[in-house]
Amino acid sequence: MHLRRQLESIETDGRRIAELTEAHPDARVASCPDWTGRDLQIHVGRFARLVHQLIEARGAQPEQEPIPDAEVLADYDADLARLVATLHDTDPSAPAFTWSVTPKVAGFWSRRAVHELAVHRWDAETITHAEPAPLPADVAVDGIDEFLTEFVATGLAAGMVPPRPATLVIEPTDVDERFERDLGDPGPVTTIRGTASDLLLALWRRRDPLSVHAGGDPTPLEHWPSI
Question: Whole domain around residue 201: which residue ranges?
Fold first, then answer.
C-alpha cells in the first residue's frame, strides 16, 4: 500500500474507533468481550503513542513510562493526529525498532498501524451488535500478507508458534491474489477461501477460521493460534 493510502486508512479508522467508543464507553465489545469501549480506546491510544515514540527514537527502543488511562483518553485525538503526521514526515526506510524478523524500518510501523486500527475499527463496530462493515479489500489483502510475513514468520522463528508440517493456502474471492505459506515445514494443504476481509478477520480469530475452510486438513484451523 502507498503511504498516502496507509495514512488515510489510519486516520479514518482511528476516528471511527473514537466515535463509537466515546458513545459507548461502558458497553462490551462483542468481538473482544473482555474489553469495554473505553478499554478499546485506551488500547488504541496507547498504540498510537507508542508507535510515535518508536519512530522518533530512530532505531532505539525507548523506555516506556506508565501513563494514566485518563491521560490516554484525553490525548487520544492528539496522539492519533501526531501518529499520522509522524508517519507522513518519516522516510519508510528510516531505522526503527521493531519486534519482527523483517528489516527494522519505519515502514513496518505505518503498515502495522493500518491493520491494528482496521481490525479494531471492526471490533468497535461490534459494540452496537450490528454487523460491522467489512475491511476494504486493499487493506485486507495487505493485512493477510502482513500476517504471514511478519507474525507467522516471526512467531515461527522465535518459537512462539509451534511449527507443524502443514501448508496454508489463502484464496481471496474478491481480488486476484493467492497466498501459500508453510507453517513450519511443507505438509498437507489446508485451503481457506472467502472475501479478503473475512479471511483476514479469520486469521485474527474475529471470525471462526473453520468458517472459511474450503478444502484439505482442517486441523490447523481447529487449533489456529491467536498471534
Answer: 138-222
Alpha-carbon distance of 87 to 109, in angstroms, equals: 8
Per DSSP bridges, beta strands 164-172 and 184-194 are: parallel
How far apart (Å, rounded) are the C-alpha atoms in residues 43 and 120? 10
Give phi and psi for 139, each to the nearest 5.
Answer: -65, -45
**pLDDT tens digit sequence for 102-116:** 999 999 999 999 999
Alpha-carbon distance of 28 to 126, in angstroms, equals 9
In a domain, 227, yes or no: no
As a whole number of angstroms, the distance between CA 98 and CA 188 comes to 32
Q: Which amino acid is at 189?
A: V
For residue 226, pLDDT beyond 50: no
CATH number of domain containing 56: 1.20.120.450
| Cα–Cα distance measured from residue 202 to residue 208, given in angstroms and rounded to the nearest whole number | 6
**Which burial class, exposed, middle or buried, applies to 70 when counting CB atoms under 10 A from its CB (0-12, 13-18, 19+)?**
exposed
